Amino acid sequence: MVGTLVVVSAATLLVVAGLNVLASSKTLKTIEGHLRASIEHKGTGLVANQALGLRDLVMDNSFGDVARLIERTVEEDEQLVYGLFIDEAQRAWGFSTRQGQTAKDQLAWKHLAIDLGALNGASKGSVQVGYRYVLGQNVFEFSMPVVDDKGAPLGRLFYALSDAPLRQAQAEARANSRRTLLVSVGLLLLLGTVTVVTGAVRSRRSAARITQPLTNLTEAVNALASGNHDIRVEVGSGDEIEILGRAFNNMAAELKDSYERLESMNRTLEVKVQERTRELAERNRDMRLVMDNVNQGFLTVSVGGILAQERSAIVDHWFGSYEAGTVFVDYIVKSDPMYALSFKVGYDALVEDILPRELCIEQMPARLRQCGREYRCSYFAILKEDRIDGLLIVINDVTSELLHARQESERNEILALFEALTKDRTGFLSLMDEANEIVRQVHSGDLALQERGLHTLKGNAGLMGFGVVGRLCQQAEDELAERGAALPAEALAPLDERWHTLNEALKTFLGDKGRDVLELSTKEIERLEQDILAGVPTSRVLDRLASWWLESAELPLRRLGRYAAALTSRLGKGELRVDIDANGVRLAPKAWAGFWSDLVHVVRNAVDHGLETPVERQAAGKASSKLRLSSAVANRKLVVEIEDFGRGVNWRAVAKAAEKMGLPSATEEDLARAMFESGLTTSREVTTISGRGIGLCAVREQVEDLGGQIAVISNPGQGTCFRFTFPLLDVGPRFGVDASGKTADKGAAA
């Protein structure tokens, strides 16, 4: 209240003072206007009257009368500062100043610095008024021309009135205004002081009447809060505070009753809490017992990547213990740095919650390796209000499981070796010889040879059913791509070890006979017997005997067909119909083993890139996938064809890849040649089937070594045919007999 009174009083004081100042300023301006008008009226009348009186004196050349008139006028009026009359020749007839200067000094009047040029341009019949500083003071200067009866100018009369009365009147008005302001401010200050003091006294009395009951209530509340439930307060103010006091007393009584009931309930609750605590302790012991004996690792990671202290005991056994606040990545990096890096990238993406959670969890590392043991990791998101709040990591030791799987794969590989050897001894041994040569090339230390060798060996492994070898080749290819340099011997050691095991198994199967075994069907022997009995020429008999050392082209073609059918099924492209037509062609196994081995790349490309999925075939109106493998002799040339009836070559993609590598791409022939260049691929990603751009390059080099040529015939939506053509040289029997038993062609033995 006191503050409000002070503010109101101060505001009133400021308003009154401001209004007083404005009124005083307005009054001063009014007084000044009246005084100026009075001075101007006086000066104008003086000059006008004397100008009329001087006309006759000037026309009579009464110099003395003019001078006396001006001097007497200045002497009689104390307000006049000077008087002056000059003729047209600027001679002073009469001149007088308050300081005593007269017309005797003809040049004295020039110190007045009158601008005659400005006055001459003014109207001749009017009084000119000016205000300027002259003779040490500000004056009102009045002037008027003196003219004869005809209006001709005779001279000009000047009088100057001092502004001292104006300044004196202004000073008096300002003094009166200040006195009025001081009196008003004093009265207002006195009134404000009295008001504030009166308000303070009344406020203090009211406060005393209000605050005392409130003080009593406050003390009672504090006592109640300290536990004194018997406290009561007596308030007789007769206002709302008394009502508040009664409400407090009622509340204190109710609180006392509630407290007594609560104490009774607490005694019962303590018993229940003890029982519940005992049950939880038993459950925790059971859970701890499970966690200490389970063979799975359970870890919980917070959003910030911090490990929770609760985990299964086997985690400490596998990876060591950790302190509170340990980051999971820092904890696990000592065991498997690559796993730790992959987990950090995947977990950051999961926590950002931008990509789908299922996708992020799927991309997190599934394998953890440490000291020769392998662990499989599973992840389960912990959610809080549909947001990631942590991650549960379940770790299983799968070392034994993987070992059994690897042993099973190795057994299956040995079984595949045995089956291939029994079905096609000659062809399989040729493939093994070619693979042995490839393994030696892989150890040459040349990057290009390693790339082609590993890719070809992987294809041959798939052809022969060597799954473990194929997987080891894929791992070596991935490491080779990552290094960008030839692999050292230690990086190839697992592949060497497995290949050595297969060779040792092959030697065991072959036994003492080794490779010096010729496989013949009874039909072949019967045909030879028929030819001899029929008396065919000796050369024909020798040709047939020579052909026994050759391999039927049908065998490698069937191997490729079986591989294509298995690959088609594995890629989810349905069943594959394979048509094989060898046309009785027989070839030297060792000479052509490399060619048949590299043809696996063409088959892989045909299945992976050429054949459509079941949905695509149905949309295109095709019944089933089909692959044709054939060999034939025509015009002393060997022709081998691999034709798929799929989608055809995407020449646009080939052209784009060729342009990227700087290869010619103007014609379809240029694109066909570019397909067989090293490194060219239309795949967006590398898979275990294709994507490195190496396989077809190896095929081209093999065909060129045999003196052959390659043609690619492709029609969009109808399929692609790879045609390999080789010339036949006259250096011995190279091809045997056709299916009818007649000689198909004569060529050179390879």
Fold and architecture overview:
The protein has helices at residues 2-59, 63-76, 116-120, 164-225, 240-293, 313-319, 328-332, 337-352, 357-363, 399-423, 425-442, 447-464, 467-483, 493-510, 522-534, 538-548, 554-570, 589-610, 614-620, 651-661, 668-675, 695-705; strands spanning 80-87, 92-97, 128-134, 137-147, 153-162, 296-302, 367-370, 373-384, 387-397, 551-552, 576-581, 586-587, 625-634, 637-644, 709-715, 719-727. With 750 residues, the protein is α+β, with helices and mostly antiparallel strands. It has four domains: 2-169, 2-Layer Sandwich (Beta-Lactamase), CATH 3.30.450; 294-397, Beta-Lactamase; 398-519, Four Helix Bundle (Hemerythrin (Met), subunit A) (Up-down Bundle); 550-750, Heat Shock Protein 90. Mean pLDDT is 80; it is low at 730-750.
- Helix/strand/pairing category: alpha+beta
Note the gap between the termini: 123 Å
Q: Give the beta-strand count.
A: 16
- CATH topology tier name of the largest domain: Heat Shock Protein 90
Structural domains: how many: 4
Keywords:
5-stranded antiparallel sheet; 22 helices; Beta-Lactamase; disordered C terminus; single chain; 5-stranded mixed sheet; 750 residues; 4 domains; 16 strands; Four Helix Bundle (Hemerythrin (Met), subunit A); alpha+beta; elongated
Task: Break the fold down into its secondary structure elements and pairings.
Elements: H1 2-59, H2 63-76, E1 80-87, E2 92-97, H3 116-120, E3 128-134, E4 137-147, E5 153-162, H4 164-225, H5 240-293, E6 296-302, H6 313-319, H7 328-332, H8 337-352, H9 357-363, E7 367-370, E8 373-384, E9 387-397, H10 399-423, H11 425-442, H12 447-464, H13 467-483, H14 493-510, H15 522-534, H16 538-548, E10 551-552, H17 554-570, E11 576-581, E12 586-587, H18 589-610, H19 614-620, E13 625-634, E14 637-644, H20 651-661, H21 668-675, H22 695-705, E15 709-715, E16 719-727
Parallel strand pairs: 11-13
Antiparallel strand pairs: 1-2, 1-5, 3-4, 4-5, 6-9, 7-8, 8-9, 10-12, 13-14, 14-16, 15-16
Helix pairs in contact: 1-4, 4-5, 8-9, 10-11, 10-14, 11-12, 11-18, 12-13, 12-18, 13-14, 15-16, 17-18, 18-22, 20-21
